């Protein structure tokens, strides 16, 4: 599978990203419950992108080896960045009066989660879900 990139700037794009994540996950053999976790993590990250950065790109790619396959999701924006990552990754922290579960929730749902954010530059989030049924 080739990398696929989706621009994110509206609710419609969030739905398209969720759908693509599910489709790619299905091709990689993920279970329906794992597909739900992937779609939820994508929703949380894409929602934050629309809310705080107003736009960005999410890319999807298959990763792994013969014995281990997974789905890599990379979200990139040139928004305001996150001043305090450790605080932003705590349950309940929000600057927009939400429940504050987006970033920490996505981190829990995926097997690997990396975030790099610089105020005034933007944010890059890399997440991987590994297929446990292989």
Envelope shape: globular
> What share of the residues does DSSP label as strand, in percent?
25-35%
What radius of gyration results from the CA coordinates?
A: 14 Å
What is the helix content?
A: 25-40%
* Pattern of helices and strands: EHHEEHHEE
Distance between the termini: 17 Å
The computed structural class is alpha+beta
Question: How many separate helices?
Answer: 4
User: Quick check: average pLDDT?
Assistant: 89
What are the segments in which pLDDT stays under 50 over at least 5 consecutive residues?
none
Largest sheet strand order: 1-2-3-5-4
Total count of strands: 5
Task: Give the biggest sheet.
Answer: 5 strands, antiparallel
Structure notes:
A hairpin with a 3-residue loop joins strand 4 (112-118) and strand 5 (122-130). The protein contains four helices and five strands; from the N terminus they run βααββααββ. The mean pLDDT is 89. 27% of the residues are buried. It has helices at residues 11-27, 32-53, 85-88, 102-109; strands at residues 4-8, 56-64, 69-77, 112-118, 122-130. Helices cover 38% and strands 29% of the residues. The longest helix has 22 residues, at 32-53. Helix 2 (32-53) runs antiparallel to helix 4 (102-109). The protein has a five-stranded antiparallel β-sheet with strand order 1-2-3-5-4, covered by helices on one side. It is globular. It has 134 residues and is of the alpha+beta class.
